[in-house]
Each structure stands twice: as C-alpha cells, then as structure tokens.
Specification:
Layout lengths: L2 E3 L6 E3 L1 E4 L19 H13 L4 E3 L8 H11 L3 H4 L3 E6 L13 H15 L4 E6 L8 H13 L3 E7 L3 H14 L4 E5 L9 H4 L1 H7 L2 E2 L25 H4 L10 H17 L3 H10 L7 E3 L8 H6 L6 H10 L2
Parallel strand pairs: 3-4, 3-10, 4-5, 5-6, 6-7, 7-8, 8-9
Antiparallel strand pairs: 1-2
Helix pairs in contact: 4-5, 10-11
Length: 324
C-alpha cells in the first residue's frame, strides 16, 4: 500500500490507517468500557489490515479505558519482528481513563500517561503521539514542554494535534517557533463529506506549514455507508442506537437527499457508497491518510476499494456540491 510522509515528522504512514477506537469500548466513553469490539474480533481486524498492507494503527489511552492499547500490545506479542518493526502506532491523551479520573494536557499527567501507554502497548517508544483534545485549562506551552520531555527521553517521536481548531493550532505553531519547542506535525480532526469545515479554516495552515492531515470519521459515523435511511429506524447496534449524540444533526431531509444522490453516484461507478466517500477524502492533496474504524474485518473492504478509485478535481468538486 502507498505510504506518504506525515508532515515533517520523519515518519511515513499508509494511506489507510486502522482506527482502533472501538477496541474494548466505544471511543473514550466510560459508559461503554468493556463493550465494543472484542479482543478476538480486534485481532482479526488487525490481521486483515496487516494482510491488506495497512501498517499504521491509531489508538488512544482512554479508548476502552486502556483496552484498545492493551489489545494492540497483545496482538504484537503474537507477531514476529518483521511485523512489530513495521507497525507505526499513533496514540493520544487527554480524556479520563474512567469515571471521576483526571483529564487534560498538564505536564505531570502527560508524563504519567505516556508511561502507561507504553506499558499497555508493550513497547519502549511510539512513533506518533497526539494531544487528543485542546485543553483550555492548560497553557499550550506547558503541554509542548511535556511533549519535548517525552521526545528527549526517547519515549515518543513526533507529536500531533487532534480536535484542534485553526486558532488553537496557529497559536501552538507560533509558540513552537518562538520557544524552540516541538511543533505539531499533523492534525487529526473529524472530516468527511458531511463535515468539511476544515477546508476553509485548517487547510490553509496545513499548506503554509507543510503539516500532515489524518482525519477520523471519514464516513461520518456510518452515515456515508448507506446504513441510515429516510423514515427508517437505525439498525440495531449501530452508533445511532448506542451513541447518537455526535451524529444527531445529520438526521435531516437535506442530508438524506444528499445521501441518496451519493448512492446513485456510487452505483453509476459500480462501487459502494463508503468506498466513494473515502475516495473523495483520499483525493484531497492535503490528506496524508484516513483513519477508518471498522466494526469487523469485512468493513475494511470499502477502504481497500477506495484506493482503486481515481477521482479528478472535477469529480471531487461535484461530490462536494452534492452535500452543500
């Protein structure tokens, strides 16, 4: 599978990144810790991803209350050095590890969370480490200094910013320049045909500073797969039945009309809706790779299919117009 350099991090990643956010839970929500993708299914997902050429895995300390990192670490112990040495792990910190636990990007907490992540993953160093959210309670300088400590100690490589707005990112980049601190080399925000505001706000910063971009939720929580239909209840066990809050705003006639148009576009090309939506994202020059979070191994098929779809700039703009 094609790899691309991630900003100026010195790390190359595959265009498809395996999102492990549902391993042992559903994201960072304590209410769902212990649920989500079982260890056996997670192992099958990682095997399928590896067999398909995916060598970049995305996780976070709070996913599944630590279970996601632990599953990855246990999977790595079953593999030989040829696998362990090629897997590029990105992990993150900010969210609490359980009800009532602390959160944020304070210096002492980052030190503690890095060590805990390394222990769960069973590694001495992770190549990629991210701030999982912007922390309005902690000066960005303190956070960047903590990341510098981790880099000097050889525990983490490059650092990135997840769920940052343009102003927050710009402030961090300026601090890094002025203070000689590590800078965020890439951004990981929610991004899809249904959520593409970063094109106007964050993308100019990506281009100005030569940053990478690895968006999550490129299928908008499953909305771009065709599983949600006008005037029909959501499928049992889907995100709209388990954790609908992030996606509730999509349930509108305007969105359903756009989805129906996307379905026709996909059918005309002989591909799935999910594959076409992923191909649209991958066609944007600013994107380094996309984080896909499949619920089972079969759900990786559209991601691999998307790599074979060639969209022109005209095609890309046309699909964007469908959702405006």
């Amino acid at each position: 599978m094609e790899e691309r350099a991630l900003g100026a991090s010195g790390v190359s990643i595959t265009r498809i990144i395996l999102g492990c956010g549902n391993f042992g839970g559903i994201g960072s929500s304590p209410a769902f810790f212990g649920r989500g993708t079982s260890k056996g299914d997670a192992f099958r997902l990682m095997d399928t991803a590896w067999d398909g050429g995916v060598t970049s895995f995305d996780t976070a300390d709070a996913y599944g209350g630590g279970r996601s990192e632990r599953f990855i670490g246990e999977w790595l112990t079953t593999k030989g050095a040829h696998v362990r040495d090629r897997i590029v792990i990105a992990t993150k910190t900010f969210n609490p590890m359980g009800d009532g636990a602390d959160q944020g990007l304070g210096r002492a907490r980052i030190h503690r969370q890095i060590d805990a992540s390394l222990q769960r993953l069973g590694v001495e160093r992770v190549a990629l480490y991210l701030a999982h959210e912007f922390d309005s309670q902690t000066p960005q300088e303190e956070t960047l200094e903590a990341f510098a400590d981790g880099i000097r100690a050889g525990k983490i490589g490059a650092v990135g910013a997840s769920n940052f707005g343009a102003e927050q990112l710009a402030e961090a980049l300026e601090l890094s320049r002025l203070e000689g601190l590590p800078r965020y080399e890439w951004v990981q925000n929610g991004f899809s045909l249904l959520e593409c505001g970063d094109i106007e706000t964050v993308f100019p910063l990506l281009r100005e500073h030569a940053l990478g971009y690895t968006p999550f939720s490129p299928l908008a929580g499953g909305w771009l797969t065709g599983k949600y239909r006008r005037n029909e209840p959501p499928p049992t066990g889907s995100r709209m039945t388990l954790r609908p809050e992030p996606y509730a705003g999509y349930a509108s006639d305007r969105v359903f009309t756009a989805l129906e148009k996307l379905e026709r576009e996909a059918a005309g090309r002989g591909v799935s809706m999910a594959a076409l939506a992923l191909a649209w994202a991958l066609s944007l020059p600013e994107l380094t790779g996309v984080v896909v979070g499949p619920g089972c191994a079969e759900h990786l098929v559209p991601a691999f299919e998307a790599l074979e779809i060639d969209l022109s700039r005209t095609d890309r703009n046309h699909l964007m117009e469908v959702f405006r």
